[in-house]
Specification:
326 residues; alpha/beta; D-Maltodextrin-Binding Protein, domain 2; 2 domains; 12 helices; globular; Bug_dom1
Length: 326
């Protein structure tokens, strides 16, 4: 009797080992095929350029190609919904920005996902200011002059933003409230078309992530009126902050992070986190961020989760008071 029990126990343990072994091998061999990095904006903007620089470096470090998949529209919700519904196997991850990873939750009534539940945070990559930029033909050089001109020309000015509900859109609305003026918002599918229309005098102003605009300001092709951080941007040291321009306490920061579908194995999250942190501290990573006017952050998945929570707490009351809904 006891010998049969012992034999059955041994066979059970052996069978369990056979069942568990493939799962262990899958974890150990990740990645065994290309990884898709989903970008919530169109190709060509500064955010896209950072995603592609990171994707190339991750591919080299992980030994598998990382392919950037641009899925623009709905303030990042199209891309985020795709990632949220993807298998949590580490082969579909998102290059997220404030909208799809946080703020859209505050504005969209019928959001197909809850960012705090749908995504596993990986790492906070970088931060950068937003810029208030104007076409050269607009007769204003400061925020004070913009306020005066907009008040004298009600309803005539428009401002390009990289999508409905994006940080550029929210910040534009808040700045208008702070200045006591109203301008028409013109949403685009990403940064590149905003830049094109600003250069082509199709829009008067742009409120957007800063990187794509710095070279144009330096070349004198557009005019920077202000940056939205509490301190001046090193790349445009002569451009005042919104606070310096007369709006006390005003601050908005763009940020970029990696996230994966909830349920993605922790060892996969850890490998992606380590590889991204290595990129940020490498000469290649530092050069890429400097070129794009961004500041590296890095850190742990837990740190990113805490940061997103803080962003929601910060913007929630503001969005509610401003009655910004999508």
């Amino acid at each position: 009797m006891s010998s049969r029990i012992t034999r059955r126990s041994v066979l059970a343990v052996a069978a369990a080992g056979l069942i568990a072994k493939p799962a262990i091998l899958r974890a150990e061999t990740w990645p065994s095929r290309p990884i898709t990095l989903v970008m919530p904006f169109a190709a060509g903007g500064g955010t896209d350029l950072l995603a592609r620089a990171l994707a190339q470096d991750l591919g080299e470090r992980l030994g598998q190609q990382v392919v950037v998949d641009n899925r623009a529209g709905a303030g990042g919700n199209i891309a985020a919904t795709f990632v949220a519904k993807a298998p949590p196997d580490g082969y579909t991850i998102m290059f997220g920005t404030p909208g799809p990873l946080a703020n859209n939750k505050l504005m969209y009534k019928n959001l197909a996902f809850d960012p705090e539940r749908a995504f596993a945070p990986i790492v906070l990559i970088a931060k950068s200011p937003l810029i208030v930029a104007a076409r050269l033909g607009l007769p204003v050089t400061t925020l004070a002059e913009l306020k005066t001109y907009a008040a004298a020309n009600p309803g005539k000015l428009n401002v390009g933003v990289p999508g409905n509900g994006t940080l550029g859109h929210i910040t534009s609305v808040l700045l208008q409230q702070a200045l006591g003026v109203k301008m028409a918002s013109v949403p685009y599918r990403g940064t590149a078309p905003v830049v094109n229309d600003l250069l082509g005098d199709q829009v008067d102003l742009a409120m957007d992530f800063m990187p794509s605009y710095v070279p144009l300001v330096r070349d004198g092709r557009i005019r920077a009126l202000a940056v939205t951080t509490s301190q001046r941007a090193p790349d445009l040291p002569d451009v005042k902050t919104v606070q310096e321009a007369g709006v006390p306490g005003f601050e908005a920061t763009a940020w970029y992070a990696l996230a994966a579908p909830t349920g993605t194995p922790s060892d996969v999250i850890d490998k992606l986190n380590a590889a991204t942190n290595a990129f940020l501290t490498s000469p290649k990573g530092k050069e890429a961020l400097a070129t794009l006017s961004m500041q590296a952050v890095g850190g742990t998945p837990a740190a990113l989760k805490a940061f997103i929570t803080a962003e929601l707490e910060k913007w929630g009351p503001v969005v509610k008071e401003a009655n910004i809904t999508m």
